[in-house]
Structures are given as C-alpha cells and as structure tokens.
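Bench notes, afternoon.
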Amino acid sequence: MTRCPCEEEVLRRIRPTPEERTYVRTMGERLIEAVEKSGVAKAMMVGSVARDTFVRGDRDLDVFMLFDPSLSREELQEQGLGLAHRIAEEFGATWREKYAEHPYVNATINSLDIDLVPCYAVSSATEIKSAVDRTPFHTRYILAHINDYADDVLLVKQFAKAGGVYGSDHMTEGFSGYLCEILTIYYGGFHPLLEAAARWKPGEVIDIEEHGTKQFEEPLVVIDPVDPERNVAAALSLSRMFEFAELARGYLAEPSEAFFCRPPSPPLTREVFSRLLSARGTHLFSLTFATPDYTPDTVVPQLRKSAESIREFLERSGFPANRTDVCMAEERCMLLFELMAGSVPVMRRHIGPPVSSRENAEKFLAKYVREEVLAGPYIEDGRYVVEIPRPFTRAVDLLRSKSLFDVALGKHVRRSMKQGWTVKVGAECWDEEFAGFVSRFLERSSPLARIKRMAGK
C-alpha cells in the first residue's frame, strides 16, 4: 500500500539512523560475548532493538542471560545477579538492582539504558518457570514473521505513543510494543490495522496461530503465538482500546502528522487550576500518603482498588462522585476524588423492609425503637422508613477519619496510610509533585478530541 506523505515524513523522523542501529547492536553483541565468555549462561538480545522495531532515540537494550532450567530459583537469582554485576562493572557502568517477577540489573552504559535479565533457557514457551522466560520466544517469533512490516510497526508504535495509549504498565493500561507488533503482522500493516481497529467491538479475539486453549474476559483478546494460554492484550483497558479505535477513525478520515506527535502540555499553574475548578462548581479532595516501597505493577492496582472502595464509601455516605483517579509518584501517592457535594444534611432516610415481610419488619422495628433517631420508624407505602443522623456531614471529615480503614484498601496502601495521610480540599489539591496529574484530571479529553481542538475544528 502506498504511504501518504505524512507517514513518509514521520518515518524519516522516527526510523533509527544507521549509526544508531549499528551502535546499539554492537553494544548488545559485546554484552552477549561477555555473558557467554563466563561459561555459565547463553545470552540474547530481546525486545525492539533485537527485532529492529525501535523508534529513534529509544536507548533501551535488553540482554537476557539464559541459564540451565535445572537451577533452583535461588540459584538462578544468585548466579544471574552475580554475573550481571560482574558484566556491568567490566563495562564501567553505573547499575542498580530492580525487581519484576525476580531481580535483574539495570545499568547505564555509554548513555544506553541496559537491562541484564537472568532467565531459564526452556525449550518451549509452555514450559516457562517465570514470565521472563517467555520473552526470548517472543523475539524469535517476531523476527521470523516481521517480513517487511518493520516500518509499519514503527508507525503503529508512534501513533499509540502520541495518542497516549502506548505502554502495558498498570498506570497506562495500554498497548505493549509486542502487542503492536503482533497486531501489525496479523492485520498486514499499519493501514489494515487501523481499518480493523475502527470497527473493533468489546470481546474481539485474535489468534494468529489458531491454537488458543482457554477463554479470556478482557475486552481485546490476542492469543500469544508462543503460548496458547496467554492473552498478550491482558493489560489493555476498555478505555485505551477504544481511544485507539477513536484515533484510527480520526486518522483514516483525515490523515495528519498531528496523530504522530504529542506537543508537550505544561501543567496548569496554581492560579489557572483554581479558576478552572471554581468554574466547575464541584468539590475536589486529594488524599496523599508515602509511596509504598514496591514496584508500580504492585502498587498501582492497589491504589485503584483503594480509591474505588473509598468512592463507594463516600457515595453510601451521601457524597456522589463525578470522577476519581490515582497517581503513584516517587515520594508520595495521591488519590483524587471529585464530588458533586462536599456536605450533606445531618438527616438520612433509611428505607427498611416491607411491613408484609413480618420477620424482617419486626427485627427492623426492634432495632430502631432502641436507637436514637430523628424520626420513625414510620410506614410509608407499605415499608418501614427511619430518619437517622449521619456519622459524617462533611466529606473532608470522612476522608480524614479512621473509618477509611473499615473499607477494602490495598494491603500496601493500608500499611502506608497507617503511618499517616493528608487530605486537601479544592484549590489546595494543586501540588508541585502532582502538577501534571491534577492538570490532566481537570483538562481530561479523548485523544481525538484533543487533536481536533488543537487543529481548531
């Protein structure tokens, strides 16, 4: 298919230069040589550098060190980290240990961000002992099937990045690089993928090898070509899926370079934030606490769970929510709640059982004639009703109360909040550490709406 001029221009800008490609690959080969010289492990480059699908300027290089599967987890960790430390030092790198399913070493060598990851050299992806063991099979599969689609993959990745839907981390819940590659190969290029995405419906199933063995519940199901029991799109949320679909429709209707570049959006100043908030007439509350010492993959789902539990508690207490969101920063985490009311009357109507339901009705009556009530129990349209005082008439008091520990908070969130948390109200929610997050919260719009607004349409 002939590319439109804007795609050719984008490719000129994002294709790695021959020098960059050679430099990164040479460094990868030197690291592989150093690993294999040790005699304890084989090595291979994985990820987009190995598959030649990396966007210019991406300085990430992943080298996997493949150990004998007969090693125990403890031996793999000990030998793998030991070897990674030696190699990093041999190359004069600054390095630190990081943790996914098991520890690995992240090193900076000649301005490249390098991960040295120990894994098992299993013979097939269905025999994996940990999730990272699958990655070498992904690299081999893409290399065998990418044919002439490398440029198409670059366009898909840049399109997803600019649209804000790239990244399978828990904060983004978007498209991983591997998912972009599989979709491009399956549909046969950038344009066919967009045409298909424009028609996507929840529950779409793609099984490129026609070998899937189980049912999945996620909105997009892409059976991993190297593992029939895995959904490559498991991290993708319904919202990100349809933001991509919306972008695809917008681009097919009117192709433009605007779909491939996302101009930086400076955070709102405190004054502008305050003015926009005031214009909404809603009630904003932020809840902050120290960031638990775990990876985002562990912490972010717990933040979402905690925010949802607190939102339900607020709503049960008479404070309806418009939106909530969460953010994990280096030092602190923030939960943000936009409520339609910040205070409510003391009196709350509590509707009881129908009087015809004798046993329940008698229990209800017995309970509330003993308690302090504002009125009732009385019978209205055949049911008992009682008017009782609320424990909280202001949302801020609820959010500052220990009652939060009665709801289903994430384990690490609960532990962190036990050390203390801070609640801010309204314009005070603006915070230097979270300026970008609170700004995006107020100015939220879909990717295509943003592009159209910038184009003045």
